[in-house]
Amino acid sequence: MTFSVAVRMADPALAAQQLLTEYDETYGLGDIPPVPVTDIAESLLMLDIVEENEIRALPGAPTNCGPLSGLLTTADQTIWVDRREAQRSPQRKRFTVAHEIGHWDLHARRGATKTSECACARDDIREDGGTHKREREANEFANELIMPKAIISTLAPELGFNLALLAEHFDVAVRALELRLIRLDLLPSWMRS
Ligand SMILES: [Zn+2]
């Protein structure tokens, strides 16, 4: 039997679930949400997380795609996060870190690309898609990592679809939570605007 590239390339949501399982078996996930995104990066994957004033000024970072929200450099296993965005919104930082973990897990660790760096513009890191395939995959991974379908689909009805309360539980922005529910087709029709 030969394994095709398709087999080696993981489904983003499935890969996120596998990573959560891996963390659980090693450190114990405990009572989630919120998912310990920082510790998954630092303890399980040995990735450093560094806030940076101007990611574009880093050696090797592209300067032609606008302001960068995040960058993964594989040689030194570092996730760079835009400092201003991180300080403005810790939830945005969480999503950016989860997105870069996605690049590490899907695109670097699995050897699916020879690219040693993943640079992510502001519009690349978003809960509702992404322009390029690799960015969409990293976003799908991040969504499942931070708001696992199995948990959100149970908790959302339990908490009466109280978006603010759910967002607090998952430590995400309210809009991110709402988009996740919409994409999973979990938001009741009477709540849709
Ligand atoms: Zn990206």
Residue share in helices? 40-55%
User: In DSSP terms, counting alpha (H) and pi (I) runs of 4 or more, how many helices?
Assistant: 9
Low-confidence stretches: 1-8
Radius of gyration: 16 Å
- Beta-strand percentage range: 5-15%
Q: Going across the biggest sheet, name each strand in turn.
A: 1-3-2-4
Ligand list = zinc ion
Q: Could you tell me how far the N terminus lies from the C terminus, measured between alpha carbons in angstroms?
A: 50 Å
Q: From N to C, what is the helix and strand string?
A: HHHEEEHHEHHHH
Mean pLDDT: 88
- Structural class category: alpha+beta
The largest pleated sheet is described as: 4 strands, mixed
Shape annotation: globular
Counting DSSP E segments of at least 2 residues, the number of strands comes to 4
Summarize the structure in words.
The protein is an alpha+beta fold. 49% of the residues lie in helices and 11% in strands. A four-stranded mixed sheet has the order 1-3-2-4. The radius of gyration is 16 Å and the shape is globular. The N and C termini lie far apart (50 Å). 37% of the residues are buried. Residues 99, 103, 118, 120, 124, 135, 138 line the site of zinc ion.
